[in-house]
Design goal:
By secondary structure, this protein is mainly alpha-helical. Helix content is 61%, strand content 5%. The chain is built from 18 helices and six strands. Helix 7 runs antiparallel to helix 10 (234-260), helix 7 packs parallel to helix 18 and helix 14 (368-379) packs across helix 15. It binds arginine (ARG). Its EC number is 4.3.2.1. One of its GO terms (cellular component) is cytosol.
Length: 459
């Protein structure tokens, strides 16, 4: 059957394959609320500017609300033949209110319509990500506060490096998620301009009021160039890019939780709520939620690359390629919100094993740097020489299968004659972390100061 929108131009309807490749209603129905909101703003503006009559605008506005409630009640007759959400809504509006429905599309195109709908949707997702990140940072700060002075190994190359505190490690993620949050805020502010009224690409001859529709839709202002307004999807790319960076942070934390919850580390105990057992191995408690966060993050990175790839070769202005912006962005947003919620839940129900952390903190000569620093501070050795002396002491301890504090003063003096008994004060892991008082360092005082700053920020 002829498509009702192009009936005059196309005698026969598209065949089934064309319909399958062309239709987007299967996914863009998700934009129904934004589409109806945009259309209501447009109709009100058309009446305010005298382009259509008040009574037509009123019929359109009311009819659109009827359509909205039909969709929300789940009894809307979506039709693939009508291609997308815009034409589905408009066709149904025609059935509901008759002739005035045909006036809604005055001074508008599906090109500015879809750009508007999608922007409104992505803007909502920025808000959701910001809210999700706030909750996650709160969970991170709560963990940090509980163990602000619990010592644990700090790693480089996943090899013991220097002792740090649990609070310090948790607050590292608070910083990362805090930057993620601000990236979504920045992206939101930049995308908050209205494409509506750009029409197909060139603007329109009707005396429309773009400021009015921009304001009605909560945009700061109309976009200043109609070609740009209908042809860029940088707002979605920015959302996806911010999502990708956040996803990588989530994935790294997930990876640490997988490692830490292993029997070999036992740094943390996951709640039963966030783990699963094995059908064959009775002892198992697998960190499935963390693993799935780590894995699902790939979808977000993939969606980002996919949309960049869609956009990279497109001449101005609209091309149908851009219809492929939605599924990727929908999936990435869903995945991000799920991963944020799962990580927040997992972290909130996580128990850090203080004793295991502390025992592990001293393994692997983790205070060797403290010993070298003592030699510099107390004996005036150049750091490079102190490094060498310490290296010899580490080799001695390693040869005997003991830790640095297990060496005797005589052992120490056999390597450097001026070493004194008080060197042993700096070999303990608590002393080590307490000494790292530089701004942003792991000393519990410093960590508590950062916790306080974040709590104030989140309040
Ligand atoms: N479904 C289309 C999309 O998502 C709407 C815009 C169609 N515009 C057009 N000129 N065919 O991009």
């Amino acid at each position: 059957s002829a498509n009702s929108m192009w009936g005059g131009r196309f005698a026969a309807g598209p065949d089934a394959i064309m319909e399958a490749i062309n239709a987007s209603i299967g996914f863009d129905r998700r934009l129904y609320a934004q589409d109806i909101r945009g259309s209501r703003a447009h109709a009100a503006m058309l009446a305010a500017t005298g382009i259509i009559s008040d009574s037509d605008a009123e019929a359109i506005g009311k009819g659109l609300l009827t359509v909205l409630s039909e969709i929300e009640a789940g009894d809307f007759p979506f039709q693939t033949a009508l291609e997308d959400i815009h034409m589905n809504v408009e066709a149904r509006l025609k059935e509901v209110i008759g002739e005035p429905a045909g006036r809604l599309h005055t001074g508008r195109s599906r090109n500015d319509q879809v750009a508007t709908d999608f922007r409104l949707w992505v803007r909502d997702q920025c808000d959701a990500a910001i809210e999700g990140l706030r909750a996650l940072i709160r969970a991170t700060v709560t963990q940090a506060e509980a163990g602000a002075d619990w010592v644990m190994p700090g790693f480089t190359h996943l090899q013991t490096a220097q002792p740090v505190t649990w609070g310090h490690h948790m607050m590292a993620y608070a910083e990362m998620f805090g930057r993620d949050l601000s990236r979504f805020q920045d992206a939101r502010a930049r995308m908050n301009e209205s494409p509506l009224g750009a029409a197909a690409l060139a603007g329109t001859g009707y005396p429309i009021d773009r400021d009015m529709t921009a304001q009605a839709l909560g945009f700061d202002r109309p976009m200043a160039n109609s070609l740009d307004a209908v042809s860029d999807r940088d707002f979605a790319l920015e959302f996806l890019s911010a999502s990708s960076i956040c996803a990588v942070h989530l994935s790294r934390l997930a990876e640490e939780l997988v490692i830490w919850s292993s029997a070999q580390f036992s740094f943390v105990s996951m709640s039963d709520k966030w783990s699963t057992g094995s059908s064959i191995m009775p002892q198992k408690r697998n960190p499935d939620a963390a693993e799935l966060i780590r894995a699902k993050i790939g979808r977000i990175l993939g969606a980002t690359v996919a949309l960049f790839t869609v956009m990279k070769g497109l001449p101005l202005a609209y091309s149908k390629d851009m219809q492929e912006d939605k599924e990727q962005t929908f999936d990435a947003a869903d995945t991000l919100m799920l991963a944020l919620a799962a990580m927040t839940g997992m972290l909130s129900d996580l128990t850090a094993n203080r004793d295991r952390l502390e025992a592990a903190a001293g393994i692997g000569f983790s205070t060797a740097t403290d010993l070298a620093d003592w030699l510099v501070r107390e004996l005036g050795l150049p750091f490079r020489d102190a490094h060498h002396v310490t290296g010899s002491l580490v080799a001695m301890a390693e040869g005997r299968g003991v830790d640095l504090p297990d060496l005797t003063l005589e052992d120490m003096q056999s390597v450097h004659g001026q070493i004194r008994q008080d060197v042993f004060n700096v070999l303990g892991v608590h002393n080590s972390v307490a000494s790292r008082q530089s701004y942003g360092g792991t000393a519990p005082d410093q960590v508590r100061a950062q916790i306080a700053r974040w709590k104030e920020k989140l309040a």
